[in-house]
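Question: I have long wanted to understand how a fold can be written as tokens. Here is the record:
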Amino acid sequence: MKLYYYRGDKPNFGDDLNPWMWPKLLPGVWDDNPNEMFLGIGSIIFDSHPKQANKIVFGAGYGGYTPLPVIDDKWKFYFVRGLQTARECKLDPSMALGDSAILLRSCITERPAKVHKVSFMPHFESTYDGNWRLACQLAGVHYIDPTATVDQTLQDILSSELLITEAMHGAIVADALRVPFVAVEPIQQRHHMKWFDWASALDLDLRPQPLAASSMVEALMKKAGPNEALVVRIRANRRFLRLVPKRFAQGAAESLLKLSRIEPQLSGDANMERAHSRMLEKVELLKADLRAAAPLVRSAG
């Protein structure tokens, strides 16, 4: 079974959780067989997957980045990220258990001491669109790099008393590991919808907060809104990053300090325990299904 996840130009914590987590939960089942695809963490229910491949959906979501795929007998759903994904894929709402990164609860055995009062984690694209490291320095806030290794990022989240995050999987992981968080609205509008998809499965009344731009690039992208073609042109013009960077970073720092004083969020303990327990049941079901299919695969070979 091939582990499929989004690979961009830069590492990204949310996507990179896949090769870190799944071999721990499902050892010995992975290969490069393109005819058996496993879709776990991410907005990776796409219409571009090979039509003849069997697609196993295990907590993935639909993010609206492509048209909806045609759901046929090549798709097998164990559970999906949230109610919006279930609705789009014409699934029963009971299939909306939550983002499968919640299963990190079964992988984290040690908790570091809290050494950061407030941390901020930008979306991975904001690491090159903005000046967030400088903004965090000015605010006295710990900067978490979403393009760092999974081990480092998990350490940073767990050692924080509060996480302010533009990265959705910053919030998902913080919530799963019971680190209070403040969600901020992503600079790019196309990333907004999927947050509410995840939150819906946990009955979490998500309250995303606005955050000041840390660069001229981000300020222009905010104004561009859903105009993706304009966003691409703005991002390509790197000279915008060099325009009054200190002034934008100072405004972003003040915004971070303001957000650090509002009440953070967590989903309910009972909802989290229930989601985790049901996902573990699905892991066992998948293992049983793989064992049952193994003799068929051998005889076919």
